[in-house]
Specification:
By secondary structure, the chain is an alpha+beta fold. The strands form 5 sheets. Strands 13-12-15-19-17-18 form a 6-stranded mixed sheet, with no helix packed on it. The protein is flat. It binds copper (II) ion. The site of copper (II) ion (CU) has 6 residues, from loops.
Length: 384
């Protein structure tokens, strides 16, 4: 490994916790009034008795790029969907050039696991911060209403757990992320602590003319920007414990120049051997989340047949796109039916970010070549 360890002033856990609590409380106080004033606009809430009578299901979360088992259309009425996330602070190697980070993760992956429900379902999350962790964490669901997306009600120290229930009132794909207050917010988000939830319309996805859309496969890509400090020899600094890079990372983040922009946690997580798979004729949904920074997905050699670029399934999808935009702090979804076999690169089409910083995935597609769509009329040969 070509990296070095250098001495850094350590930031004690006590400093972390006290700054977090103070800034978090300030943020929260400013927002409570706004949330309360909006609540009257919503539909009649269920009574505690009605809520207690709702059917409960447990959703077993899986690591990206996969989605948990789910139905594309809802059967029956609203449910309470129970999910569990254990926060794991873990060292992750980002590339083969010695870059590593103490990542903050939900269930051990960057991005955190995808949750899938239907509109009007309730998500009941048990969030666990094991004693072995160093930092306080919480969760802000962009799909939720009130209390800073739940962040206000879920801030837990190592050794604590909590349970949050929220109603999925809006259909679409949405980011969730850790938001423990102040500088801790971008620090945790840029250390991998973000993920996405998909809230499907109860009667399933629809095209711009109202036609039903179904997918044969779905993949979930979380784009992650990292800001790794380097030492005076231009080598990545190695830290011994989670949180030790706090001050250096804040300095790096202020420069707005990510050291890495990757899909699913590390350079190469979805390329080569790890390529995503599909067959010709299959309709594939690609969900793309970016909790911090604008991005612009593009499928090289394919298209976005239907694209919910803003993430809202309430809006009709755009059709037949080459490249689409996903705002930082949002997720988007695209549907494509593969028509040719072979290798496709799915990239952030700022190609500097794709090629030099890591924001690229591969699809390996099997099936019959369609000569009508494309043919090589003459192989590369010397000019006659
Ligand atoms: Cu966190």
């Amino acid at each position: 490994m070509n990296s070095t360890t250098i001495d850094r002033p350590s930031v004690s856990r006590r400093t972390f916790l006290s700054s977090t609590a103070a800034v978090g409380a300030g943020l929260i106080a400013a927002n409570v009034a706004t949330d309360a004033s909006l609540s009257a606009a919503h539909a009649e809430p269920l009574t505690p008795t009605q809520l207690a009578a709702l059917p409960r299901v447990t959703q077993n979360l899986v690591a990206p790029p996969f989605l948990p088992e789910h139905d594309q259309t809802a059967s029956g009425g609203a449910k309470i969907v129970e999910v569990r996330m254990v926060i794991e602070e873990k060292k992750v190697s980002l590339d083969d050039e010695g870059a590593e980070i103490w990542a903050f993760t939900y269930n051990g992956s960057v991005p955190g696991p995808m949750i899938v429900v239907h509109q009007d379902d309730y998500i009941e999350l048990t969030l666990v911060n094991p004693e072995t962790n160093v930092l306080d964490h919480n969760i802000d669901f962009h799909a939720a209403t009130g209390a800073l997306g739940g962040a206000q009600l879920t801030l837990i120290a190592p050794g604590e757990e909590c349970v949050l229930r929220f109603k999925a009132t809006k259909s679409g794909v949405f980011v969730y992320h850790c938001a423990p207050g102040g500088e801790m917010i971008p620090y945790h988000v840029t250390h991998g602590m973000n993920g996405a939830i998909m809230v499907l319309p109860r009667d399933g996805l629809k095209g711009k003319n109202g036609e039903p859309i179904r997918y044969d496969r779905a993949y979930y890509i979380g784009e992650q920007d990292y800001y790794l400090p380097k030492d005076e020899n231009d080598e990545y600094v190695i830290y011994e414990t989670p949180g030790e890079d706090f001050a250096d990372s804040i300095d790096m983040m202020k420069k707005q120049n990510p050291s890495h922009i990757v899909f699913n946690g590390t350079v190469g997580a979805l390329t080569g051997e790890n390529a995503l798979k599909a067959n010709v004729g299959e309709t594939v949904m690609i969900i793309h989340a970016q909790a911090n920074r604008d991005t612009r997905p593009h499928l090289i050699g394919g298209h976005g047949d239907h694209v919910w670029s803003t993430g809202s399934f309430d809006d009709a999808p755009h059709t037949d796109l080459e490249t689409w935009r996903i705002a930082g702090g949002a997720a988007g979804a695209a549907i494509y039916t593969f028509k040719q076999p072979g290798l496709y690169a799915y990239v952030n089409h700022n190609l500097i970010e794709a090629v030099l910083k890591g924001a690229a995935a591969h699809f390996n597609v099997e099936g019959e070549w369609n000569n009508d769509l494309m043919a090589q009329i003459k192989e590369p040969t010397k000019i006659a």
